[in-house]
Amino acid sequence: MTDIPAEIASCQAQEFGTFERLFALHAKAFPDACALNCEGEEISYSALDALADRVAASLQRDGVEGRDVVAICASSSIAYVAVFIGTLRAGAAISPLSPASTPDQLAAMVSDSGATHLFADGSVSRDLAGVEDGITAKRVALDDGARGAGFADWLLADGAAPTPVPIEPRWAFNIIYSSGTTGTPKGIVQSHEMRWNHVGRLGGYGPGSITMISTGLYSNTTLVVFLPALATGGTVVLMPKFDARRFLELSEQHRANYAMLVPVQYRRILDVPDFDRYDLSSYIMKFCTSAPFSAALKAEVLARWPGGLIEWYGMTEGGGSCQLIAHEHPDKLHTVGQPLPGHEIRVIDADGKFAAPGEVGEVVGRSGAMMNGYHNKPDKTAEAEWYSPEGDRYIRTGDLASVDEDGFFTLIGRKKDMIISGGFNIYPVDLEAALVAHDAVREAAVIGVPSRDWGETPVGFVTLVPGGQAHGDMLRDFANARLGKTQRLSEVRVVDALPRSAIGKILKRELQDLMASEGAA
Question: How far apart are CA 120 and CA 128, in angstroms?
Fold first, then answer.
């Protein structure tokens, strides 16, 4: 790694600073260093800094002021990153929207955010064709297939620079909309102060480091690694679309040091038939978050992929986060680790009181990394908050967990996913573990469906390993033999794939909708 100039070190040591300021300092210190590589196209730090300046100046020309909002919905690209940084430089908040959203959701999110501009590519513009009347934001096209002013024509000329905007710590850095897995997406407002806590505290990065980014830039999962990588002078290799073999090829080609991947991506990469022929020895650390990460998969990553492995547990809304340094705690792979320094995480019971050690309850957390609230939804913000007897503000996670004697948290499942059958609490994670114990099962999801006799009854959905031979009744009997009488599955279905969000979360609501459409009882 390259030595860090004193001006950069001083900025990084500040109690509060901004991402775009750190980026600018690296552009000044290392102008020719590669900032981004996207499908073979490269841009240096100085060129990306100048392009971001032009974006910021163009936004200000259009009347954008501090604390306004700019939306972007597109695949990852160099232009996308320039808009992201330029928006912040203009003093506005960026609202990165998922291209996987429905047209109605996209129109609603643009409206809810109050965005002055919407930057989009061709695929998104086609999706929005039926809801154009609901979008009043100025449209800027990031490619030839998109509606709106062309990006190159919209930009001010080379050398344009914005008027500096002093950023306050509590100003919105971004508005990230939830995936909508539990209903209508909610805008999660994260401040510059919160992002500074992320950017300035992730060690290991620096000039010369290479980071693979293969999840969308609209996801907090991505930004937790993407922002520190750019803010500390490293090179980011962007994959607009994930492909397991291509990921391995790029990792080997660029001698990658870091990667953020969700569990389903780890599974697909390890399943590449000739995975072991790729040279991944340059990896220093790999990260994972956003979805349950099984102990077996963690162990396989550690055994087959050089470098360390860190799992983060937390929410886009912030609160408290846990970290499992998997390579240092191979006996704790069933957990999500311990609270990060400065993060206070507790378990509360049904009465809102602190639960006893080992007792299952809802996880609540507080730290310097907490959302301001849900955009335009004070009632939903209040629902997400819990206050201790001392008046301290925590964020509810909706997750059920217990804590062991070493302070490691074990997730039991989502509070909303808990099944109550015959008056007994059933945690789907226990039933899913019983199903994946079968050699033919790759993954499992268990939901509760209405039952006249029991109130709810558990139903399982499984996918099989390649070549796996098993049918539903066989797997139901296999799992039930390992479960208590009150936990037993009423049905198991073998499916080709489980429904997932864009970042790999299993969408149990879709499975419940499927059962409801069939009149399950």
Answer: 10
Cβ-based burial of 473 (10 A; exposed 0-12, middle 13-18, buried ≥19): exposed
Distance CA 131, CA 133 (A): 6
Instruction: Express the helix, strand and coil content of the chain in percent, nearest 5 each.
Output: 35, 25, 40
Same structural domain for residues 262 and 221? yes
Instruction: Read off the CATH number of the domain in which 215 is found.
Output: 3.40.50.980
Q: What is the dihedral of CA 200, 204, 207, 213, to 10 degrees?
A: -90
Q: What is the pLDDT along the chain (521 residues), one digit of tens a residue?
A: 567 899 998 998 898 999 999 999 999 999 999 999 999 999 999 999 999 999 999 999 999 999 999 999 999 999 999 999 999 999 999 999 999 888 888 999 999 999 999 999 998 887 787 787 778 999 999 998 888 999 999 999 999 999 999 999 999 999 999 865 445 689 999 999 999 988 866 566 889 999 999 999 999 999 999 999 999 999 999 999 999 999 999 999 999 999 999 998 999 999 999 999 999 999 999 999 988 899 999 999 999 999 999 999 999 898 899 999 999 999 999 999 999 999 999 999 988 899 988 899 999 999 988 999 999 999 999 999 999 999 999 999 999 999 999 999 999 988 989 998 988 889 999 999 999 999 999 999 999 999 888 889 999 999 999 999 999 999 999 999 999 888 999 999 999 999 998 788 899 999 999 998 887 44
For residues 161 and 54, membership in a common domain is answered with yes
- 28 C-beta neighbours (distance < 10 Å), count: 14
Residue 391 forms part of a structural domain: no
Residue 274, in any domain of the structure: yes
Q: Determine, yes or no, domain membership for 494.
A: yes
**159 and 269 co-located in one domain:** no
Contact 238/76 with Cβ under 8 angstroms?
A: yes
Rounded Cα–Cα distance for residues 215 and 75 (Å): 10
d(CA 404, CA 383): 28
Q: Which domain holds residue 445?
A: 418-517
Answer whether residue 36 is part of any domain. Answer: no
Which residues are registered as beta bridge partners of 258? 211, 285
Axis-axis angle for helices 244-254, 263-270 (nearest 10): 80
